[in-house]
Each structure stands twice: as C-alpha cells, then as structure tokens.
Amino acid sequence: MKPSKGQRILAVMLCALLAFSAAFYFPQQQARADTIDNIVSELNKVYTMLNEDPAGKNAVNNAKEETAALPSDPASDPWPAVFSLLPTTAFEANFGGGDNAKQAIVNLLRDAAALTYSTDGAALRTELGNFKTTHQDTVNKILESGFTTVDELYDFLFVKAKAKAPDALSGLTSTDLNKILAGNYTDSVKNWTREALKLSDTAFFGGKFQTKLGLIGWSIDSLVDAKEEIRKVVDPDYKAEKALLKAYVRSESKFYKDGNPLSAVSLSAGCSTPCELQLLGINPDSDIGSVINLFLKWKTGAESIAKVEGGNLKAVAAGQTTLIAYKNDPATDWIFKGTVTVSAPSGGGGGGPGPTPSPVPSIDETLEQLAAGEITPEQTAGQLSTIVSELKPEEITGEVKSQIQDAVSTIMEKAGTIPADGLATTTTGQSTRVEVGTEAIAAALARLNAVNQELAAVLSLEGIERPEINVVLNLSDVNTKVLIVRYPRESLPADADLEVISPAAKIIIQGKKTTTASIGNLLASSSASWLAAADNAAQQVEVEINTLSTQEVSPLISRLPSTAAEKMTLAGKVVRAEVKTVRGNTSSAYTGPVRIKLFYEQSRVKDTELLGGYAYNETTGKWDYAGGKVNTKEKTVAVKKSGLNNYAVMEYDRTFSDAATHWAKREIKVMAARHLVKGSGAEIFSPDRQTTRAEFAVILARMMNLAADPAAAGRFADIPANAWYRGMVGAAAKAGLVAGTGATTFAPNDPITREQMAAMITRLMAKQPGGLTITDQEANNILAALSDASAVSSWARKSVALMVRENVMNGRQVNTFVPAGKSTRAEGTVVLYRVSNKI
Question: Is 356 contained in some domain?
Fold first, then answer.
C-alpha cells in the first residue's frame, strides 16, 4: 500500500513534532537519562545547522520570546480561540473548576510552544526537565493515566521513524521535494503534522493517544489547530518553522561517494567523483534520490583547489576548500556544505610526476558517449564547456560554431527527454494510451536547468543560440495507429514546450516564451506554485495522434490537382492530430498554441524545396496550405495547428508558361510552392512586369503569417475599401513592416523602388529572433564601395547596406545598387526567396 503524505513527510517533521505535539508524553513517565541525552544529541545536529543561518536562528529566538510574552490570562488572545478547539469541560472537576483548568492549559501550552522554538541543546535539556516537573500533574489530570514512556517516544521518533525514512519518502511528489529543499512548506505543515501524529499514534501506540483525547472532547485535529492559533501570534510568517525545517534538512544531508555518506570529501589531485547527495537517508541511486539530485547545483569555494564540471567534483591541486550543494542561491538556500581536502598526486617513484590526466575528448567523441549512455546530459554539457574553453579565438571558425550549435541542441534534447520506459502505458486494439506524471516532467526540467547552467559560457559565444526549452516524450518506437498522451495541464511552466514524438509526427504544445533565457528560472522558488498546481489540478491535456489508413486517406486526396501546370503529391502519412483539455468526463478544444512537425518520406519526394504542410478543409473538400518550415536533417515539415485536424506533407509543383525559361524560374517555382507569390493569370506569372508597393507589402505580410486587417489600412486615403490588397497592406502597416509615402498616402499602385524594398525587408528581418542590425560606420564602409551611393536616400542608407552585407540584394551592375530603380516581379521574388531562407 502506498504511504500517505503524512507517512512520507514524518521524518522531516521530527524536530517540530517533538516539542509541542509530544508535550503530553513527557510529563507522564520517567525516562532513562541516556534517552534525554540522545534526544538532545539529535536536536543538537539541527541547532548546529541553525547556527549557519543567523537570520533563521534569530527568527526562532524571536518566536521563543513571543511565546514568553503570551498573556497568562485565559480571556486574552489567542486563548479563547484555543479553548474553542480544546474544551475543558470534561476534566474541570479535576482542577477544582473551569477557571483553574483553563489557567493550567494556558501554562502548559505556552511552555510547550517555547520548547518548539529551542536553539540550544544544553538549554533544551534543562527546559525538558523543568517542563516535566512543572506540568506532570496537569497532564495526569487531563489524560488521567499515562500510556507511553519517553523512552518509547524517543525510540519511535528517532529510531523507528528515521530507519523507515528512505522507504517512506519514496512516495514524495516533486512539489513536496521542491518545498523541502526550498524550506517553503507553509501551506502544508499543519496537514503534515496532523497526519503524522495520527499515523504515529495508530502504528506505534495502538491509537491510545487519540482515544484518550476523544474522552475529553479533543482530537489530534483540534490539538494541531490549537498549535496553529498560537503560531499565528508567535510566528505569523512561518519564519521560525521554516528555519527549523531548513536546519533539519541540512543536518540530514551527506555527500555520497562510493556508496558512503560523508560530511567531508578527500581526493587526490587529478581525480574526480560524481557530485551526489544523500538527503534524509535517501541514496542518490534510488528513483526519488535521482530526482532530488536533479534539483541541485554544486560549487566549490576555490576552483584552484577543486571545481565542479560536468556534474563531477574534480580535484585540481593540494589544499582545502568548501563544497556546497544548493538549489538556487549558494549563500542562502544551500542544502549541504562540507570540506574538500585535496592531496598531492602520488608520484611514480623518486619524486617523479604523477599520473597524466586523461585528454579532453573531442565534441564528436563526447556526443558519442552521450548517445551510448556512458555519460549524462549534465556531464556532456560540462565536457563541451571544457572543450570550448580550451579553444583559441582563431580556432572558433564558422564550421566549429556550427558543430558547437549542433552539440548544444543535441544535449538539450537529450536532457529534456522523458524515458518512455516506466510510464503508464495501456494498449487496446489499435490504440495506445500513455499517462505522463508531473514528477517525470519536473525531472526533465531539472535536467534542462542543470545543463543550461553548465552551458552558460558556451551560450555566451557570439552566434550560438539557445535552443527551445523542450520536454520531449519520444514514442517513435510505439507501433500503434492511434497514440493518446495525457499529462497535467499545469505541469509545464510558461516558457517550456512539451513535444510528443510518434512514428508519423511530432506534436509540440507551446509555452508562452516570455524570455529567451528563462530556463534558468524554471525551478526557482516560484516554480513551487506551478508544481503544486500540477499535483492538484484535475485538468489534463490530451494529445491524440491518429495515423490514417490507406482506406481513410484515399477520399481525402482524390481531388488533388494533377496537371502539367499544377500538381500536388502526398509525401508522407496523413495524420489526424487533436489536442483537448480534459476535466473528468468533459473535454474541450485546447486553446493554447500547438505546432505539428510532420514526417515526410524521402523516397516520395522529388524536390524538398517544394514541400509544405497542408490541412484538410472538410467544408471545402480541399487541402489548405498551412505553411511549413522544412528540416531536411530530421525530414519534417513544421506547421502551426489551426482549427482543422487532418494534416499532411505535400509536394506542390507550380509551373508558369512565361517563366519556364526565365533566369528566375527556380525562385518563382519555390516561392509559388510556399504560396507566397501567385500568378498574374491562370498559367502566367509576368516575371518582367514591375512590382507594385501593394503587391510587395502583401507578400511580406504572408511571410509573417499576418491576418488581414482592412481597418488598419484606413489611415491611407488612397487605398480603396474594396481593393484586393487592402487587408494585407493594413496588416503589414500595423506590424511596422511598411510605411506610407506621406501621412495619409501609401501609393499602392506605384512600382516599388529598390531602396524601398530594402527598407521593408530590413524591418521584417529586424523582427526575427536575433534581428539583424548594422552600425553607421559599417554601413558607411559598405556604401563607400558603391559608385552610386550618393543616390541612396538618407532614410534608406542603413537598409541598403544591410541588404548588400547579407547578400539579399545585389547591384544590377558591378559596384552599383540603383536605389531608385523599379523592381520587377522576378527580381522581387528572388529577393524574397533569399529572405525566406534566412528566417
């Protein structure tokens, strides 16, 4: 039977439970002297760690002072609220009246609360003795007879519970771990305490404590609620209790080396060992232990002595330094702190040199190790960082940067991939259902976070881009017609994507992408909110990928055009992709952004530049162009999911009779396949006709996937209300891609000049990720090489220079740009073909 949260969290609540909740145990029976010593010894470990947290210790001391200042009058706050929970009627006669009974309870609970906020072992020993002497009579009058001894209590709290902690804690959720590591458990502590006390009484004392409480109208629930009423006064912001929990966690954290938990580490220079933590008795090689370690970062105090690279502690030179495991900030939320002692390497006899360190592997060798499972993504990232750091500036060529970029993408993808084995999978007939839990997603995000930290220096290189933050579920080996994947909707933070890979397609549930570097904050303390929401949410996201059969596909492709001038052919499977939000037995369409990467089959493709993604429109019975970024390496075409459900990759071959032998025939064919340019007639393109400003603006709007916005064109008096281009020109103007020729004019039918074209394209490219820019000096240097530079308008100089630099627009003749020249449809198509390949 799976342990409840009360059992799972019991071990980390010992110090808080002992003082207040166990106050009714201590006064009743004599204890062996060594038992009290053992209790104090155990709590001294906590107090030692509390000394490392001056602010926390101060908060605990302040709470203790506040308990001393609690009013002794039962009629003063918080006591009326306490007595509404803990009535005295049943035992008032034992005290000679109600007032005396209430006064005795006030004195007992006030001193019990003070015990909770102890910070010194010697003082605690004295306080326990005084507490017993002072309140033994009170407890006996309330409960009338004892039911356990302090020795038994110690044996339960500090022996039995701690021995069972690893097994009990194995059921912790990611939310629980996040709260424990961050010391942020204010919303759960009352419930944890309540459940732990009930379970401990039932398991170890046969429920006698609850039975005794029930006889006087009390319960464990009312006792814990009463404690909360006192805490609201003495520790209103939970600072003291959070400090005690943090100190306890730190006292139960050890560096794990060669199967042994250690408080300090010793290594010889040149040697290394994995950075792994044993937390609360949980070994890092267990399932929950591995998740705990994914949440952690490591650093040393002096990297000249020892440093952390690729998830390993590496001894550099003889000496001593500090090793810290932490969650977000090593100064404030560290979990483990220990000493690293590095000894000089043993020589080869006669004082000779020690062992030669292994050479750093190449990038290819490192990725091979990752693919073989010999090293983790974190270790791979560390090795890549080392390789890059040892490169000389002149060695970082464009080819090397491309290799580094590919390596970064591979590492991030591997780090974000959730292992398919171990997931809850059910197959019924031709349908396979996979359930993905919050813990699996959290573990992938933790790996991504750790890799991101290791790659910080690599990602700072000019030209190296940070890959998208993808949590990947690779089910490409699942042989099924219908694949259904379900996960908690709130389990993904805003900046992460979840990618489901089936044999026919990849479905990407997109995050908001509010910042380009936000992965570093994904598992910060604020992330506890989305983890908690995920654990508690009833709402699920369901992704269904149905690969249609030949019989199902046949009627959908029967009307594809197949003439010499226009031909469409299917290049892969037809996939029915649906994404829903599910709550209980009800579902609705998922409203967030979704991308689909459709696999194509190379054997069915003649020209990859003519590929595109298409969605079947059941209303018209036709395939609508859905866009598509072709990736020839992974053989996919990426599209944005619309309200339609059936998607496929098509090859679209459009031929125009008047462009069949034209110098720009290739670019015209490809841009027609991308549905960015259209013919001027049924089978003609008019390549040498001049392009108007309106035509060019419409193509730019299509390239940006803008929706028509006729109202936005209202600022231009010369654009008729019924003009075919009005909506797209309005959209381009609203997006800042085009400007008017005056305050209220656009001159839509005027031929576009080459410098106007350069300005419009520059605005479009500036809106892309890593938008292109150019300095005045660089622009002047480029324009100086043009013989007609003086003819370039002042407002277009930087745009023209940028187009020349990026090889988007070339001069009509050597060393000329012809800025006022009118562009033909063929010239404009060629320029936009180059642009579309860059964005």
Answer: no
Q: Which pLDDT tens digit goes with each residue over 565-584?
A: 889 999 999 999 998 888 87
Domain that holds residue 151: 5-169+182-250
Please state the φ and ψ torsions of residue 790, each to the nearest 5 degrees. -65, -20
Q: Are the C-beta atoms of residues 120 and 111 closer than 8 Å to each other?
A: no
CB-based contacts of 643, cutoff 8 Å, min separation 6: 589
Residues 6+ apart with CB under 8 A from 242: 56, 59, 183, 184, 185, 186
The H-assigned helical ranges of 235-336 are 239-251, 287-294
Same domain, 206 and 309: no
Structure-model confidence comparison of residues 249 and 286, the more confident one: 249
Q: Answer for the pair 413, 472: CB distance below 8 angstroms, yes or no.
A: yes
As a whole number of angstroms, the distance between CA 247 and CA 277 comes to 16
* Torsion-angle region of 217 (φ positive above 0: left; ψ -120 to 50: alpha; else: beta): left
Q: How far is CA 459 from CA 260, 361, 385, 518, 771, in A?
A: 36, 20, 9, 13, 17
Give me the number of domains the chain comprises: 4
Residue 518's pLDDT is 40
Per-residue pLDDT at 120: 85
Q: Same structural domain for residues 489 and 582?
A: yes
% of the chain surpassing 90 pLDDT: 23
The burial of 569, by beta-carbon neighbours within 10 Å (0-12 exposed, 13-18 middle, 19 or more buried), is given as middle
Beginning with the edge strand found earlier in the chain, give each strand of the sheet holding 306-309 in spatial order. 272-274, 312-315, 306-309
Q: What is the pLDDT of residue 814?
A: 67
Answer left, alpha or beta for residue 97, where phi above 0 means left and psi between -120 and 50 means alpha. Answer: left
Does one domain contain both 288 and 207?
Answer: no
pTM, full prediction: 0.55
